[in-house]
Amino acid sequence: MVATSALSVLRCRLAAGRPPALCSPRLLPPAGRTVWRGPAAHSRALVVLDDLRQLPQSPRPALLLGAAGLLPFAAAPVLMLRTGHFSTELLHAQLAYGACILSFLGGVRWGVTLPDGAPQRPDWANLTRSVTPSLLAWAGLLAPPSAGGLMLIGGLGLAGYWDMVMYGYPAWFKALRFCLSVGAILSLWTALMCKWFLVDQEKAAAKPEGDSASQ
After folding, report:
1. Terminal-residue alpha carbon distance, the chain
2. Tens of pLDDT, residues 38-91
């Protein structure tokens, strides 16, 4: 038993580059699969702080495009807070963009299982988790804005968690996913808070007309 555990730790260190404390048989890559070897470590463990230390190792295009992808999320609540009025159009635009991003994240997981020698198999578990974000995004667009926003928040959080614990993604990617998911979720939540606490722009514009008509 001791020899088996030692071999498992050694195999994990050689294949994934993780320290022994994070190595156990359940963290090893699936049997019979060729392991992707890269500059960053791979793991199924949820080790956010360790992954965040690898964020500076992110390729510049991924880092810049990922950060730019947060702008449409943040634009809606920023504009609402600056004007002091809630805008239904801005919320709908944000939800539509969030649904597109959530569907894209599911496609990333699908694609990572397809190449020969990929660390994940295209099995029921992986492919089901790949299509779930798209279904949540679609349902979020059909639901009322408040419920739709909460569904997108839940979908982004769930997809982010699945990616953070998935074996095969480099640590810099997990760190980037964590930061971008937090930014997107906070932006969606802030927009919902604006809906609940700010004056609706359409109602504010229609009120003077109603008052003048009554006079």
Report:
1. 89
2. 444 455 557 889 999 999 999 999 999 999 999 999 999 999 999 999 999 999
Angle between helical axes of 71-83 and 60-69 (0-180°, round to 10): 30
How far is it, in rounded angstroms, from Cα 7 to Cα 26?
13
The number of folded domains in the chain is: 1
Does residue 15 sit within a domain?
no
DSSP 152: H
Nearest to 102 by CA among 160, 48, 49: 160
**Is the four-CA dihedral 160, 164, 170, 171 of positive or negative sign?**
positive
In a 10 Å sphere around its CB, with 0-12 CB exposed, 13-18 middle and 19+ buried, how is residue 91 labelled? Answer: buried
Residue with tokens 């930014």: 183
Largest CA distance in the chain: 90
Give pTM, 2 decimals: 0.76
Amino acid at 122: P
Cβ–Cβ < 8 Å for 141, 56: no
- Flag whether 56 is in a domain: yes
In a 10 Å sphere around its CB, with 0-12 CB exposed, 13-18 middle and 19+ buried, how is residue 89 labelled?
A: exposed
Would 5 be classed as within a structural domain? no
Tokens of 26: 């359940």
